[in-house]
Amino acid sequence: MTAVRAVVMRGPGRPVDVETLELGEPREGEVRVRIFASGVCHSDLHVRDGEWPRPTPVAMGHEGAGVIEAIGPGVTERHVGQPVVLSWLVPCGSCRACRTGHVWACGQSPSFRHALLDGKTALFGERGEPVFSYCAIGTMAEATVVPAAAAIPLPDGVDPAVAALIGCCVSTGVGAVLKTAVVPAGASVAVIGLGGVGLSCVMGAAIADAGRIVAIDRVAAKLDVARSVGATDGLVAGDDPAATVEALRELTDGGPDFAFEAIGRVPTVELAIESLPLGGTAVLVGMTPFESRASFAVYPLVDGSRRILGSNYGFADPAVDFPRYAQWHLDGRLPVERLIDRRIGLDGIEAAFDRLRAGDGLRQVLVP
Questions:
Q1: Which residues does residue 342 pair with via DSSP β-bridges, in sequence order?
Q2: What are φ and ψ of residue 111, in 5° steps?
Q3: Phi, psi at residue 318, to the nearest 5°?
Q4: Among 130, 169, 207, 319, which lies 20 to 30 A Cα-Cα from 11?
Q5: Is the pTM of this model over 0.90?
């Protein structure tokens, strides 16, 4: 056993605490990873605030990177000292989705049980009680034990904070553009919400060589960041959705070919659908609370051959996509570092959640 500090949630809606836990040794098919960086994602906030039910107690975090410091029996394709980024969806490798290359749709992943492959946990509290790991990786900790398939090797030279974001928000946003929507060159794109995922959508649209990329947010300062990563236009959203839709239509000659909703709020989902021209596509990337329901006018959707696509994890195949996105970053095509506006310690997590609720800033990264 190894003592590690970790951010632990013991009940939804309650402040999380930094606790000292016992971390077991990696077993068959597992590796231990020393965490160097863990992003603070809105999904973590959904769990902390009780909007997404999860088993407790649970070590938080699902967007992390570090270095392998121990390997378990049967692990042959990973080695000690290897820099890795962690995938929050650990493929089972045997279900229909995995067999057909749709790893992002794996329904048998241990990530959904928030435990390891055998259903057991690697973390234990002071009384010996098992502690779950969020999405089977629990990255808001000094170290974690994960299935080897979750630890994806990266090229040398990638900042761990950048690597952590590739593990979730970058793959989610870039993949939504390039893999889910398959945006063609010259198309017009709108991105609603400029957090880490939304800005990654902007970067993806720039890589796709979209003709016009309109970045939309209520915080004007975020528009400058969006322009620095590829947006051609910025639009400050006001309190009147109809006015925002009209302004977007004026910027995109009647409406964007693709509208990406990257917040996970019902009003912005409906705004994305409402803004579409004939043949346009709304791509829903942001994750709402479980019970949320949106509405839209059915006749114009059908009559105008409009589409609504859901994009989970940017259709990521982590073993393939993470190294590719990392190389694009090293080549200067994905300026991921511009998404990071704060690096904080584990003890700053509740303040980080407060900033996330307020929509303040971009991506915060914990450095254990």
A1: 364
A2: -60, -35
A3: -55, -40
A4: 169
A5: yes
Residue 155 is encoded by which pair of tokens?
């090229």
363 vs 102, 225, 271, 316, 320, CA distance in Å? 28, 12, 24, 20, 24
Same domain, 302 and 323: no
Task: State both tokens at 76.
Answer: 């042959």
In the chain, which ranges are E strands?
2-9, 17-23, 30-40, 58-59, 64-71, 83-86, 123-124, 130-133, 143-147, 151-153, 188-192, 212-217, 233-236, 258-261, 281-284, 307-310, 340-344, 363-366
Same domain, 46 and 105: yes
Amino acid at residue number 7? V
Tokens 């890589």 sit at which residue? Answer: 207
Q: Are both 8 and 121 inside the same structural domain?
A: yes
| Joined tokens for residue 352 | 């980080």
- The pLDDT assigned to 93 comes to 85
The residue range of the domain holding 325 is 2-167+315-366
Which among 310, 333, 349 is the end of a domain? 310
What is the arithmetic mean of pLDDT over 287-291?
91
* DSSP β-ladder status, 258-261 and 188-192: parallel
